[in-house]
Design brief:
Blueprint lengths: L12 H53 L1
Amino acid sequence: MDNKKIEVKIQSSWQYYLDVIKKKLIKPILGILILLGVLYIGFYILLFLLLFFGIRYFVNNLKRKI
């Protein structure tokens, strides 16, 4: 005799559609927003580094000329 069990989840149609919306819409949108946030912060860090090294290069050139 097999001891296979079938589990049935009883839920309203509203709960079913809410679960579908969570799986199909909210998770991908949240992933895209996190990716965009990381890129946004990363580009500001890159801009800061470029500005820092640019100012450093400019100051070193002024020191050499003096």
